[in-house]
Amino acid sequence: MTITRLGRTLTYVLVAAIALAIAVPVAWVLLASFKAKGEFYDSPWTLPDGLRIQNYVDAFVTAHMGQYFLTSVLVTVLGLVFVLAVSIPAAYVIARYEFRGRGFVEVLLLAGLFVNVNYIVVPIFLMLVGWDRSLADVLPGGFFIDNPAVLSLVYAATSIPFSIYLLTAYFRSIPVDYEEAASLDGASRFLVMTRIMLPMARPAVTTVILFNFLAYWNDFIIALTLLPGDGKTLQVGLLNLMTAQKAAADYGRLYAGMVIVIVPVLILYALIQRRLIEGMAAGGVKG
Description:
CATH class: Mainly Alpha
Order of helices and strands: HHHHHHHHHHHH
Radius of gyration: 23 Å
Number of domains: 1
Largest sheet: none
CATH topology: MetI-like fold
Structural class: mainly alpha
Helix content: over 70%
Number of helices: 12
Strand content: under 5%
């Protein structure tokens, strides 16, 4: 019993230390985003003299973070729509139907899990540039480069192996009795997938959404490469803001830009954390 209590106490201490290591920097950035320029020359741990909302106004309007924010939202939402539209039916078919080559398809998907997209971003860029050159007579301004929709497709394509792998494992953990009962009632395969299996797999779908949202929202390398024009994403825009504000020594606007990047992730996690935990624990419980 003593060893068990000691282990539990150490676990709580470790979890509390990790939580503090995450919460303290986030709280510090939030407080710093309300400070005026002169306040940064004092102790970094002092509270701001007031809530300087102008830092956020300057970040949104002057530094174009509002425009970058909308671009990131568009790219992330489109990417999630694309990856779910492909991954859900593909995972269901792999999990439930026997067909020739299914094992080979699964091996290919597993191999895709080990491909780091940052290592292939240059070949992707060159491929898209080649496609733009081949369409130069029809679309002289180009289509594939500097197109948020194409960036969303690239995001979705590179995250499909992980998404299908996770959803396939969850679909296989669901008893086939539900599908058989629905089929006896005359439901088609599409209705079985959308009305029966998909609601039951909601925790896994939520996990896929969160992990892919984080990957798309926080991406820098791919967005920097495929969106070289003015329509940047939030991460690339934050780098530009960081460079500009370091030269101007106006750190309040810089930290306001950081908060703009962080807050959507925190809001999404707060909304779906319960289903995320369910999705992560479901494999062990059902298995």
